[in-house]
Records
---
Amino acid sequence: MTETTVDNGVNVEALLGARAALQESPEAAKFTWRATNTWLKGTHSRSKVEGFFGLGEEQETGRSFESEGDHPPQFAAENQGPTPVESVLTALGGCLTAGVAAVAQQRGIQLNSVTATIEGDHDIRGILGADADVRNGFTGVRVNYSIDADASPEDIEALVAQSQKRSAVFDILTNPTAVEVSVS
């Protein structure tokens, strides 16, 4: 029997080492992620993420990422970026797919391709104030994976299930989260 080396680009040994270390020091596992958002014009804004608190102190990683948000012309906007709700869908897909890659690496499954299609159903009468009985958010979200891997269909389904179980964004979307908004 030939042994195959699996390389999905995930350093599972480092992740397992971090898990073991944080089991010994649970206070270091408390992170605060941050983003700023600046209005530009109309419904167009720019978000920026850099730095975070974690491992017991401020973390300056030298990373800085910007993304823009806007709305399409159908909303009388200038279409300068994805809508905020589309950004939520991409966050969900990114989180779940990262988990699929990590779990596959851990289980010795070589991934050849992974594509997630994420859809959110949204009745926009809520955000427009057209009907007070319609909620502002999604009424449903669906994620469909197309995965080509050196594994059985059952093993691939188990990868996705484990990723879903460990996904922060999936948890945020499916469980109530306290959100506090203030003005300074």
Note: The chain has four helices and eight strands.
---
Amino acid sequence: MKKIWILWGLICLALAGYFVNQMFIQAHKTDFLIGEASYGHYQIEMACTACHTEPFGGEEILQNACVACHQTELDAAHDSHPKKKFTDPRNADRLEVVDARYCVSCHTEHQHEQTRAMGVSLPDDYCYHCHQDIAEERESHQDLAFDSCADAGCHNYHDNRALYENFLLQHAQEPWLKVLDEVVLSSSMPSYYHHSKNADFSDVSAQQPVNLDSEAKIAVAAVFAEDIHAEAGLSCASCHLQDADEWLAKPASSQCATCHSQETEGFLASKHGMRLAQDLPAMNTDMSRSMAFHTAAQQECSACHAPHQYQQMSATESCLSCHDDEHSKSFIASPHAKQSDIEFSCATCHMPHKQIMIDGQAFSMVEHNQNANLRPNEKMIREVCLDCHGLGFSIDALADQLLINNNFNGQPSKHVPSIDWALERDSR
């Protein structure tokens, strides 16, 4: 009997040691994963502390983690359902079914099998709980089902700007295609590259490049001489030399960030860089479970910007070297790619230029966070589509999945009557 108790004790100690090792030492805590994370978070599901900042935290801890990552995005979208709306005592009864003060009430994680678009884990008719009377207020909505509220980008719980009536009326009469000569994409503004306050380029400029004693190195130097970094007065050491004397054969993205801090901020918030933001190895296309890929390239700066051949606009070839889905593969034959007046690439729409103000001067900078205008796709209307197209065409096109799949090779086969309804109400 004594031997049995000793054996039992040893087994318990072994199990305790195993789980202590998993919890506090091992980077991958797979044994504690209670279920697959959603599309938005699966890349960092092994970085437990990204959301669970305290081991015994409750809803408030999780809420703070959500806000830490997503508040900027919600502010930009003019969040139409902010938490303060539901802390108003007059709305207390609305919380009985769904406690909308907390993100996790609608976005429950680790339930991938029952998570819908945009990480929503509630049934699609969740609007019903607060808006049962909408059919009485809006004649146009009488025959619409509550699980269709988000169809065709009509309504978005957080970003409802696409359907503001003033916005619809303002753009109601626009042609489907604007005059391209009048919509040159931010090219008149200078580009902005931020030199980190910690980087001392006066010292770097005085350093000598590496000893070029082989044909390969000489060839690299010849290419670099035509590079935009050389034009900026940088040397090999500017990127390859870290600290005082540590030479980096292949500088990581963190080295790029010493100058490109603004671009890096967007990159780390994107699907491409979110693992690096959590100190995890760079995203590898083999890890993806949601899209078709045909290479296993790691998502770092060099995946799109080839060293020594830096381009201000990421080339379409860079995107197509990884993305193998129908929409991406159709780009070459698309109307966008065939434009001769404006240089189009995948990045034109998915990583558009944006204007930033520095010391009172306007600069153009590439938005490296694709999430900023990609999901839901109606985000693209204001920031991208309206640069070249009318609002009516843009809404219809983004509601047509077949048209999206063939990369907009044709006209929309669907019509979303939002503008029609706004015009009808305005005429009364």
Note: The first strand starts at residue 241 and ends at 242.
---
Amino acid sequence: MRLRITILTLLALSAGLSFSEAVSAYDPPPPNLMVENLKADDVPNDAGGELLVTWDLPADPGLGSQVSVLRLMRAETPEGPFSQIIEMAPKISEYSDQGLANGKKYFYRIDAVTDAGLYASRISEPAVPRASWFNSQRVSLVVALALFTGLVLFFIWRARRGATLFVRKITGLSAVDEAIGRATEMGRPILYLPSGGLSAVSDIQTLASLVILGRVAEKAAEYETPLLVPCSDPLVMTLAQEIVKASYMNAGRPDAYRAENIRYLTNEQFAYTAGVDGIMIREKPAANFMIGTFYAESLILAETGYATGAIQIAGTAMITQLPFFVAACDYTLIGEEIYAASAYLSKEPVLMGTIKAQDWGKAIAIGLIILGVILETLALKYPQLHFFASRWLASQ
């Protein structure tokens, strides 16, 4: 490289330039002119482990055009050793360095590679990545959460003070007494499935179904009608036994409780389905309740129950199984109706307050959507109403 500069300098002298002009024409640019203002900052509103490194490219386009590539170097002390993180195009002026350790200092340097050599920038001030306690860009979520929590607490407080909270009539639940009465008149048992063959006690639909089971068991005890509850999970069976036993005691008929009627079949999906189908064929229950989480077994169970002539009430939040229940059952609890059913039947203040708060939350969300549509439509003519395009909302 030195030989090349010397030859080019001699050529410039032969062209009539002075010695100083010839040297400056072929001398490489000063290193600190390649990249300036190198700094690293913690990225706000993140989980930590990230620094944003920025720098200014040379203001002189002539100098900048000589750079073929930029190398970002990182070290944990200003003395080094520096290791290369990435190699970038010369027009890039920032880089997000991720995967760092929170609370540790990092130093950066940019090496500009030119044909004349490699020129290192000044070393940046130390930067420390930290995790943010609060994401200021999610204020709207905090407001929504506070509003919903306030509604839940308010309605629970009202329910505990004896206020009547209206929940619309659910047709499937109104038919519970009809189905139990029919089984009593025919002298045949009631079959209750707290969920399908892949249930677990942690499933929220199974828990909602167990609450409904308590109501059905109490009515069955009053009418002295046998209640069969085949389960596919041992824990669900244990809970079902306790709930049915408590319901029989509430009805004043603890002597009519039969623990053997709440039984465990198997946790294999289609083996459980075959077992339940066998119960339907042999015992011929007059009323079938299938409420909870169901998968591919839903249509098999519903069709078998329909073939035996039983009145059937089904309910699930599994969208793909709802059409089968609607087609093969007399009444169907659709989606979240099974959660509302547990509150509707039990009148438990916590459940009632939650249901009412959800209804109000949905009403507020729908109102905000309608308001936004109206404002955005009017903003076509009145730009000052372009509220939802403001910078604050765009950042949420």
Note: Confidence is low (pLDDT under 50) at residues 1-9, 15-29.
---
Amino acid sequence: MTPFLTRVLGRLPIGWLQLTHSRGRFFAALAGVSFANLLVFLQLGILGALNASTVAPYDFFEADIIISAQDAHTLADGSNVARVRMFQALGDPDVAEATPLYIGNMSLQLANGDTATLQTFGVNVEDAQFVTASVASQLDLLREENAALIDTATRGISPEVFEQLAGGTSFSFEVNGRTLNAVGTIQAGGGFTADGTMFVSDQTFLRFFGSRSSGAPNHILIHVVEGADVTTVVMRLQALLPEDAVKVQTLAAAAAADLAYQTTERPTGVIFGFGVVIGVIVGIVIVYQVLSTDVANHLREYATFKAMGYGPRFFLGIVFEESTILAVCGFIPGLVVSLGLYLGMSAATGLPVEMNAERIILVFVGTLFACSVSGAIATRRLTSADPADLF
């Protein structure tokens, strides 16, 4: 390593030699940096899972505009929307078609006695153009009474059940004292509020949610006529419909607003965001302690160099060399352990905890930055050192 760094730096790698002079301290420092990286990766992984599970349900729908209750921050919360708003929207010349969307959570009893909560979408089986192709191709199956398309990634349900379902064996389960028959499958996965997803017809939905009315869906999905400007239609509908009752936005804007709400206003997103900040601070403190101790232990040597005429840039180069070595060597084991934990967390929880290249680059650059900040802080004592005071 020393010859390689000598060629790269064009001088003796003093920082590397100082770090590795005490191998125990060096590996302890690497463990600290790795732990900080692991902490940040875990927080970002869970935050990423929250983001992915938040926007995943929107991918099931094909719509230009969504009308929701004014107090609705997500797909599942907020008040219902009066169905009359759909007919008012259809009065706009650029609105081609619209359909109501019903959403609720159903708890099914599993064979082992546990329960699984499914976020359930009730859709009009005649409006296949409002759902993605994977759902649209199975909508005819939902014409049967109490039929459902169930999520194959539902937490708690054995994969064998879905294999048998694919082979033609029906899967029935009890919900609110009624029997629901799974006749097809979709794939979504669990989130933070439900263990999976399910699609039923609007008629089945209303049978299982007796308190709900066909005149009050959760949302209204809209297609505009071909060639119409969606933004212009949204503005006209916003002016047409009562602002204090409903809000009109594009489906993409609704997903973005949902994501922002979950990550900045809901406790879960805020907590994981703070976790990332804490991880960065822990990393800075650990590297600062290592570099500061190193500077203190070698202050006489540095002062000697200073008396010989070496300038601040020389000393900064040594400390930044040390901080870069710690950042790179500490990042690799942190990444490897994080990949293993991601796999374990995903298997245990069913959440989409996945590593991606953007996250790896982000954390690596952040590690380099945090270590550089620590190095810059650690050199303050060195800058003020006077050789005359040390000898």
Note: The CA atoms of residues 342 and 359 lie 13 Å apart.
